[in-house]
Structures are given as C-alpha cells and as structure tokens.
Amino acid sequence: MGVLQLSIPPDFPLPIPGNLTLLQFLIVLTFVLHIIFVNFTLSFATGAVILEASAMKTHSRRLDDMARICSLHASIHKSIAVVLGVAPLLIISVIYTQYFYTSTLLIGKAWLSIIILLITAFLLLYVYKFSWEKWENKKGIHFLVGFAAMLILLFVPLIFIVNVVSMLYPEKWSGANGFFHSLLHYPQIWQRYAHFILASLATGGFYMYLYFSVKQRKQTLSDVEQSLKLGGVKVAFWITLLQLVFGSLLLISFDRNIMLLFMGDDALLTALLLLSVFLTILLCALLYVVSKNDRPSMFYASLLCFVLIVGVMGWMRHEVRESYLKPYINEYPRTIEMKKENIKPVNKQ
Questions:
Q1: Is 29 helix (H, G, I), strand (E, B) or coil?
Q2: pLDDT attached to residue 334
Q3: Residues with Cβ < 8 Å from 224, sequence gap 6 or more?
Q4: Are 34 and 87 in contact (CB under 8 A)?
Q5: d(C-alpha 313, C-alpha 311), whole Å
Q6: Count of CB atoms within 10 A of residue 183's CB?
Q7: pTM: predicted TM-score of the whole model, two decimal places
Q8: CB 81 within 8 A of CB 125
Q9: Is the backbone of residue 66 left (phi > 0), alpha (psi -120 to 50) or beta?
Q10: Which one of 55, 74, 131, 275 is most buried, counting C-beta atoms within 10 A?
Q11: What is the domain range of residue 10?
Q12: pLDDT in tens, 186-229
C-alpha cells in the first residue's frame, strides 16, 4: 500500500456539505438528465453528417432535407447538455474528492482542452446549421464543417470516460502518463465508450419518433418528417438489440470481483443486472412492433421501458463506482463530520 499512500491524497478536513445519501441520489439523477441531452446532441450531429454524406452520394434532396432537420435539433440540445452537466460535475467532485481531482490532474491538458473543443464544436455546428442554403453549391466544404464538429463531439466524451475510469484505479495512477497513454493503460475504457455512443444513437432515434408523433397531432407530416419518424424507431430498435452484446462486453471488462457482484455475489446488483436485461429485451420487442405497425400506443410503452432502463443503468453505474472505491474509502474515509483535531484555535492578540 506504499504507492497508494503517496497517490491518494487526504480528504479535505471540512465535512461534505450535505447528506451523503441525498448527494448520491442527486448525482445519479442529475447525471441521467445531463447524459440524455448529450445523447441527443451526439446522435443528431452524427445523423446529420451521415445523411448528408448519403445525400451527396445519391444526389437525394430528401436525404439532404433529413440531414438539415437533424442539424437543427443538434444545435438546440447542445446548450442544455452543457448546463445540465454542471450539477453532476460539482457533486462528483464533492463526494469523490480524493479520486476525482487526482484522476483529473493526471489528464490535466486534455481536461482543460474540453472548453476549447466544445466552443469550437458549437461554433462549427452553428456554421453547419446556418450555411445550408448559402453553401448549397459547396457541399464538400459544408460537409467538412459538419464532419469536424461531429468528430470533436465524439472525442470529448472519451476524455470524460478516461477521467471517471481512472479514478477507479488508484493502484494504476503511478504508471499513468497523460491522456493518450491512459486510453490503453486502464481497462474498460473502450467498452464504456462503445456502450455510450450506441446509447446516444438509440436515444436520438427515440426522440425523432416522439417529436414527430407529437407534431403529427397538430398537422400532417411531410414525407421527410415521416421518414425521420419511422427511421428513428428502426435505429432505436437495432441499436438497442446491439447493446445486449456491448453491454455484455462491458460487464466482462470489469475486474473479476466486481463482475461477480453482478452475477450472484451481491443480491441487489444481480437484481439490477437481471432487471436491465429483461427491460432491454422487452424494449426490443416493443420497438419491433412499432417499427412494423407504427403504433404510437406501443411506442409510449417502449418509451416508459426506455426511461426505466436509463434509470437502472444510472444506478448501476453508481454502484460500480462505489464497489471499485469501497476498499480505498474504507482506508481513506470521507470527512463526514467535523473532527476536533481539524479545528484549530484562533490566536487572540
């Protein structure tokens, strides 16, 4: 434990400013809200670029219009995603201070670059959105702008994933050498990244069907809007089906003792895993029916199922973090209450 004694700094002498259980509940809730809008932004930016590339290849006006709608929705949700990210970032820094700050310092340059990267991506998204007609005869340039914004938006989550995975492995901190080295230094990073990106695409598919279903109540949808609506639910179905595979790959990437907690060693975690698998299979069945028959009632049932899955996944994510850090927290406990030895008398002159 000699290395750990050097690596893990002591907790702040000031106690956690709030009830720990409440803060743990809030970190799950605020993270779920934040990540949904992140998923929207990534999904629509990626969808817009893919659709525009297909439109350029096939000279399809319909695909180009679909891409334009996706770019509009991407620009709407990006700001909400950033604002909602403040709360979970603050909470995680409060209840996991020793681990989060250390893991952040280990990738300090990459972490600081997030601000520049997001500003650049947002500006590119605005250019991409508002130059659709102006650059109609310069499709190559227009596509490259959207493609650059998409690449940045797909890269930023990797920085966050490296950070939150790094904090789970204090024993590996001494061998870490910056962000790019960490991509291969720590386990489960790429499995988490693949799982996250697929979840983003599926979430965007849900949004498209829901958005145009609500709009359809007020007016008749155009052919382009109808295509996005039905295409969205099909994307959600196939991606959710694929998530069963990538979710399994993520599970087996955990340390053996953590993986076994979800496979019978811990009743709660095992129940959460089984519930998530059951809900995912049910969701696939509901989405398949919707994709074949376009039944809004079945979609709302699948939406409820999706919300439950997101909640369970957020809870499981927290439990994984707690399970990894439990031995270290036991040895280096959090400062829950003010200790007498931390109170220094004030010298009166």
A1: helix
A2: 78
A3: 62, 65, 66, 69
A4: yes
A5: 5
A6: 15
A7: 0.90
A8: no
A9: alpha
A10: 74
A11: 2-335
A12: 999 999 999 999 999 999 999 999 999 888 888 888 999 999 99
Whether 349 maps to a domain, the answer reads no
- What DSSP designation does 337 have? S
* Among 104, 87, 88, residue whose Cα is nearest residue 9: 104
How many structural domains does the chain have? 1
Q: What are the pLDDT digits (tens) for 293-328?
A: 888 888 889 989 999 999 999 999 999 999 999 998
Q: What are the C-alpha distances in Å from 15 to residues 76, 99, 287? A: 39, 16, 47
Total length of the chain: 349
Instruction: Quote the tokens at residue 327.
Output: 């031995």
The pair of structure tokens assigned to 167 is: 């904090």
Distance of CA 331 to the CA centre of its chain: 30
| DSSP letter string, 169-213 | -GGGGGG--SHHHHHHHSTTHHHHHHHHHHHHHHHHHHHHHHHHH
CA distance 322 to 263: 17
Contact present, 249 and 190 (Cβ < 8 Å): no
Whether 149 has a pLDDT exceeding 70, the answer reads yes
Domain membership flag for residue 348: no
DSSP code per residue over 68-108: HHHHHHHHHHHHHHHHHTHHHHHHHHHHTHHHHHHHHHHTH
Please give the Cα distance from 199 to 107 (Å, whole number).
25
Q: Write out the two tokens for 202.
A: 């599926």
pLDDT for 348 beyond 90: no
The beta-carbon contacts of 329-334 under 8 Å, at least 24 apart in sequence, are 331/1, 331/4, 332/8, 332/10, 332/11, 332/98, 333/11, 334/11, 334/16, 334/20, 334/95
23-45 CB burial, b ≥16 within 10 A, e <16: beebbbebbbbbbbbbbbbbbbb
**Tokens (6 digits) for 13:** 């002498």
Helix and strand element counts for the chain (H, E) = 13, 0
Apex CA 197: angle with CA 191 and CA 203, to 5°? Answer: 135
Triad 332, 333, 334: Cα angle to 5°: 125
Encoded amino acid at 122, one letter: F
- Number of Cβ within 10 Å of residue 163's Cβ equals 20
Single-letter residue type at 167: M
Domain membership flag for residue 297: yes
